[in-house]
Specification:
This protein has about 400 residues and is an alpha/beta fold. It folds into 2 domains: about 140 residues, no CATH class; about 200 residues, 3-Layer(aba) Sandwich (Rossmann fold), CATH 3.40.50. It is built from 17 helices and 9 strands. Strands 3, 4, 5, 6, 7, 8 and 9 form a 7-stranded mixed beta sheet that branches. Strand 4 and strand 5 form a beta hairpin. The longest helix has 30 residues. It is globular and about 75 Å long.
């Protein structure tokens, strides 16, 4: 039985063109379910080019939606969600099936994956109006999953790092942070009452007004940054929800976008990015420096592949001057494949590291740990030793 199963597996891996070879070796015909699985895989990996996924109902009409929907359904019947996500990604790369991301009935059936989400964000300006809501729901699935894993970790990291004496354990009317509370609850405006109904009220004591930590995220929005943008945005929104931390979010290519006001909703924040284009990192760092009020209480994250298209010397000078001013400066390098594959300019990274500024190709699950290390002002070499 084991030999029979192994032969069937190899037949499915190698495709229909090897059918006769396996028959000559004594293998019996595949079952009906195995044939359906074989057909589903052949649409993407088959040696012949007769796949219907890339053939439309007529010239210029694109892929056939009913056929793609059936194909997606077959995949779910035979493979787990992780494998389905991999095959979907291959469908886009091998068959150019961006139609998967532009039709609401298809978006609703896709298995969420980071690669799909990154591609969708790059295509967001091409998404037809009828698909906008489905696109948001698709991104929301990714956000919810990451948020579930990161939220408690980041809150724990902040709580563990901060001096509890600086924060009031009990809320009081005199300690309400009105400006922050209003900004965080604008979405809850009730037009009938003509008032904002806050879901949550934020408090601080006298010390926290001047001593709370300030985190600035300066995020490269060039095309290679997809996964890093998603994780960074979710981290930014979690931090923005904590009254003990002030957060600014800036996105850049050759232009600069201040996205801080979108931190109420990670999906809104993600759709605020304009992925693609050139890069002027130095100009963006110069812009972010205006936000620094108390350097010793400020953490500046530059999240980039360091492929500088502007002034490289200016980039290095700005980072050095921020560090000399007392700001905790950290460079998070671009990652893909769930944080397993770094992508960055090694020469620039080495020059930054030579200034004793840490550069991490950091797996996403390590971000809370890195944040806690920064808040506690610990030696980052300890963190480096824990990297994969």
């Amino acid at each position: 039985m084991q030999q029979k199963e192994q032969m069937e597996r190899w037949r499915l891996i190698l495709g229909a063109e090897t059918e006769q070879d396996f028959t000559n070796m004594g293998m019996s015909s595949l079952s009906q379910d195995q044939l359906l699985m074989d057909q589903a895989l052949a649409e993407i990996y088959g040696a012949n080019q007769s796949s219907q996924l890339g053939s439309g109902a007529g010239a210029g009409r694109g892929p056939s939606s009913p056929h793609i929907s059936k194909w997606l359904g077959d995949l779910r019947s035979f493979f787990d969600s992780e494998m389905v996500a991999i095959i979907q990604n291959d469908a886009i790369e091998r068959k150019g099936l961006k139609q998967l991301l532009l039709e609401p009935e298809l978006l609703d059936t896709l298995e969420p994956s980071m690669n799909m989400a990154s591609t969708l964000l790059m295509l967001k300006d091409q998404i037809p109006k009828k698909s906008k809501e489905s696109a948001r729901k698709f991104i929301q699935k990714i956000v919810d999953e990451i948020n579930k894993n990161m939220n408690q970790q980041i809150q724990r990291a902040v709580t563990a790092a901060l001096n509890k004496k600086e924060h009031s354990p009990l809320p009081s009317a005199s300690a309400i942070d009105f400006k922050y509370t209003i900004a965080r609850n604008l979405k809850n405006y009730n037009s009938t009452l003509g008032a904002i109904i806050p879901e949550r009220v934020y408090f601080f004591d006298r010390a926290s007004k001047t001593n709370r930590w300030h985190v600035i995220l300066d995020i490269d929005q060039s095309g290679s940054m997809g996964e890093s943008i998603i994780y960074s945005s979710i981290m930014a929104c979690i931090l923005a929800s904590l009254s003990s931390v002030k957060t600014n979010v800036v996105a850049f290519d050759t232009q600069i976008m201040d996205l801080t006001e979108l931190c109420q909703d990670p999906v809104d924040l993600l759709f605020g990015f304009q992925m693609g284009g050139g890069t002027d990192i130095a100009k963006s760092i110069a812009y972010c420096r205006q936000f620094v009020e108390t350097p010793s209480k400020t953490i500046f994250f530059l999240i980039s592949d360091l492929m500088e298209g502007g002034n490289r010397a200016g980039l290095l000078n700005h980072l050095r001057e921020m560090k000399e001013d007392g700001v905790t400066v950290i460079v998070l390098l671009a990652v893909s494949d769930g944080g397993q594959r770094p992508y960055y300019d090694e020469t620039t990274a080495q020059r930054i590291s030579a200034m004793k500024i840490p550069c991490f190709a950091c797996a996403p699950e390590k971000l809370p740990e890195l944040l806690e290390c920064a808040l506690k002002k610990q030696d980052f070499s300890q963190f480096k030793g824990k990297q994969n």
